[in-house]
Amino acid sequence: MNEVKVLRSIIAFLNGISRLLLKIWVRTEVVGAKDLTQNTSDNHEDRADDSAKPDKVTFYALPQRSYSAALVVDSETRKHDLPHALESFEIEGKRFNNRVIYLSRSEGNWFRRRNMPYLHPNVPLMFELNKANPNLDIEIIPVNVFWGRSPNKEKSFLKIWLGDTWSVTGPFRRFVSILLNGRNTFVNMSQPINVTQMQAENSKLDEARFLRKLGRILRVHFRHIRTAVIGPDLSHRRTLVHRLVRKPMVKAAIEKEMQDKGISREKAKARAIKYGDEIASNQSHSTIRFLDILLTWVWNKLYNGVNVHNLDGLKKVYKDNEIIYVPCHRSHIDYLLLSYVLFKNGIVPPQIAAGINLNLPVVGPILRRGGAFFMRRSFKDNPLYSAVFDEYLHAIFTSGYSTEYFVEGGRSRTGRTLKPRAGMIAMTVRSFLRDSHKPIVFMPVYIGYEKVFEGGTYIGELRGKSKKKESLSGVFKTIKDLKKNFGKVNLAFGDPIDLNSYLEQENPGWKQQDHGADYRPDWVPKAVSNLSLEVVTQINKAAVLNPINMVSLALLATPKQSMDEKILSQTLNLYRDLAQDMPYSHLTQLPEGDGQDWIHYAEEMNAIERLKHPLGDIIRVDEEQAVMLTYYRNNVIHLYAIPSMLACLFINNMKMKRQDAIRFATTIYPYLKAELFLHWQEDEIQPVVEQWLDLCVEKGYLSADGEFLVRPSVSSNDYIILSVLSEQVIQILERYYIAIALLQRSGSGTLTKDEMVQNCSLMAQRISILHGLNAPEFFDKALFKNLIDELLERQVLSLDDEKIIFGDSINIIAEDARILLNAELRRSILQVTLN
């Protein structure tokens, strides 16, 4: 007995020495340990409150036998106050040398090794212990240890050892891997598997069958984690490109190219290969690791922090699905930031669709090796390029890569979420129709900046300057901006959209239908259009408020973009309270602090300026600051669209029947929804409006008088607050009235759609000059085009020989506009229309 104790002491001592030696060299990033620590703490508290609660016994599962990995797990469990992995313990008379179990062990000679299934001695003991002691709660925590994260495509002998791949490693190669990549070790601790519960649910299985099932569950789990962290096995890039031209769709396009251009098969095939080479990414772990180091330095220079929200929502779906990240597009920083956040949280960075304009010397190859694949802005008139690109996307999706693309097409210069361009989503849907064995989930991502990197460029473009082409010299010119402070960034993952479920909703039984040779059935275009709108709607649903957004909402609602500091602070607190009492969605996040804190922060960020005054300081913005604040306001204006619309009704009407207010709101809502991508369906909006009216009455911004709702006195603070709130959507309503007034003035059948958009834009531009509006998006042609499209979609307007025609319903809409806009503004719009 004493000899056994001595032996255990020696083993514990050797483990301690080995752990210390490994700790000198190895540096780890750990995901999941904090959640497990919290769960362990909660369980201890529960057992303290309930003595009848079963004791918990914890084991750690590793995919293959590895002493070095076990030492890392032991070190991390000690660091995070979890049951120590390599400690021996005895429970109910059964002695366990440690808490680690392995699922396989490496066998073979130096030149040929493979993993063989392995039944660890702890596993049968665990089964017997659980069977004999129902009061025990036995759990297994799956743990993956990656000595670096590298796709399996490096060419040099040294790079084969740089990181974990899908190949089997022996002791010597593992030793070299630790030496080369020990400082880039990644540990993933998953949620525990409850063996006691699993055994109770499978009580009819004998021991051998139960243990096989448990092993199978763990192996599948480890395979999913490995794919998510290091990515799927990669083919050589050249092999992939040459494989594309052998696909039926590309072969047919080559035949067509030969006929249309009168060229030989070899020349057409060479052209297809050239297109594939231009498109395909060349993702390299060494480049990703380099970018990780570089971007860590850049973010520390540029930003005060990156706040990540709802990462758990992503973690619930990324293991078992092909993830397509669909972020909003505000800056070139977007795709770098998203890949960085994913890599830091143990998720393999996606393949990213980038515009061909970014394929610059030096920069292009780095982006390509970081995971970018390049696409031309338009390829409608190039069937061969289109076929190659389609096949490349299909190869990515079916190989299990995560992918990222921007549904808005380009960066938003106004801060608004842009109307989606459905091209990439259409290609995704067609690929899924061809092969749906791998589930696809769209993950909307909202990215909000307190100071956008390209702010100065956007101001110039909004004022009429032509967009500068991306160039290498432009990249070097941005280096000077690294000295500036860009505040914090918020990155929020939205609610996932399961493609299979969405298609089933759009066209039940779609999997059993014939989709045709080119996978373009008649029902797909409408489904793609609806899905595109759903994606941008879900992006907006995940919006996060920051101090600059809040200050922008308040200051830009005043005539001169200036406000007494105390009143501004009160107004900001009002916006905070409204967002807390009636959040736009369950994902809505508010900044820390209160109105006064946000004013000081905005001042530090040079977003506002202070004018000292004996009776109280004035907070104001100059012309350039006002334009940029418009950008940040537009990021989140949709969060306050409904209360702002209701405020407009009562600013221009002293009192109104409650039912009339609801009717006006539900009539106007579809146009607000179309422009701001609001998430409520039209049949859902009435109860939302009623809740907002009740809240306004509760807060004192309105009062109830029988069936009427009455606004506060014009001289009261509540009226001022209501007035400020109304300004958030007033410009949308003004554009709406400009279009209606122009149609009435011009008459039915006189204007084409393009003429209508052009005239509306010119009228809005003139009004903005006359009224001193520092909001260039007020006369944005794209917004008027979207409004006309919505009126056509709702059959208020129609086209006849390209001319816009309409009936008497336009007069009813014009009459409703009188309720929403004050008389002075209506006269101004009508005056410009007459001119």
TrEMBL record:
Catalytic activity, as annotated: sn-glycerol 3-phosphate + an acyl-CoA = a 1-acyl-sn-glycero-3-phosphate + CoA
GO molecular function, one term: glycerol-3-phosphate O-acyltransferase activity
Keyword set, alphabetical order: Acyltransferase, Cell membrane, Lipid biosynthesis, Lipid metabolism, Membrane, Phospholipid biosynthesis, Phospholipid metabolism, Transferase
Chief location: membrane
Topology of the protein relative to the lipid bilayer: Peripheral membrane protein
GO CC annotations, alphabetized: plasma membrane
The protein's enzyme class: transferase
GO biological process, one term: fatty acid metabolic process
EC number(s) recorded for this UniProt protein: 2.3.1.15
Motif (HXXXXD motif): 328-333
UniProt domain CARD: residue ranges: 754-835
Pathway the protein contributes to: Phospholipid metabolism; CDP-diacylglycerol biosynthesis; CDP-diacylglycerol from sn-glycerol 3-phosphate: step 1/3; Lipid metabolism
Entry's localization field: Cell membrane
SUPFAM superfamilies (UniProt xref): Glycerol-3-phosphate (1)-acyltransferase
InterPro entries the UniProt entry points to: CARD, GPAT/DHAPAT, GPAT/DHAPAT_C, GPAT/DHAPAT_LPLAT, GPAT_PlsB, Plipid/glycerol_acylTrfase
Pfam families associated with the record: Acyltransferase, GPAT_C
Family indicated by similarity: Belongs to the GPAT/DAPAT family.
Domain remark in the UniProt entry: The HXXXXD motif is essential for acyltransferase activity and may constitute the binding site for the phosphate moiety of the glycerol-3-phosphate.
Protein name listed in UniProt: Glycerol-3-phosphate acyltransferase
